[in-house]
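debug: dumping io for the single-chain case to check the tokenizer round-trip. Nothing else runs in this session.
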Amino acid sequence: QVQLVESGGGLVQAGGSLTLSCAASGVTFSFNNVAWYRQAPGKQRELVATITRAGFPNYTGSVKGRFTISRDNAKNTVYLRMDSLKPEDTAVYYCNVRNLVGDYWGQGTQVTVSS
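debug: decoded output
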């Protein structure tokens, strides 16, 4: 019974910040790669950031320098700190874990950035 729960989304003005959380049960983040994806209305879901089993982050080019992915092993939670937000960051954000057992997604959390 793997469960991923995202939280922290909301409405923010351009230039502002939000931190998203993905809390897991049934899977240990430190044993897996974890990814954040986002999907805007009418667009394909895109990969935003990953953190490897070893804790190394990777980012898509449009968010480099603005977003930071991190992990708290004690809480089994992955975070996405988003700074200098732009209207084009508006989307539903999802966390994802894929391993040999399955492909797991959270329910998503809405981020809306106003101009």
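debug: round-trip ok. Residues 32 and 99 are 7 Å apart (CA to CA).
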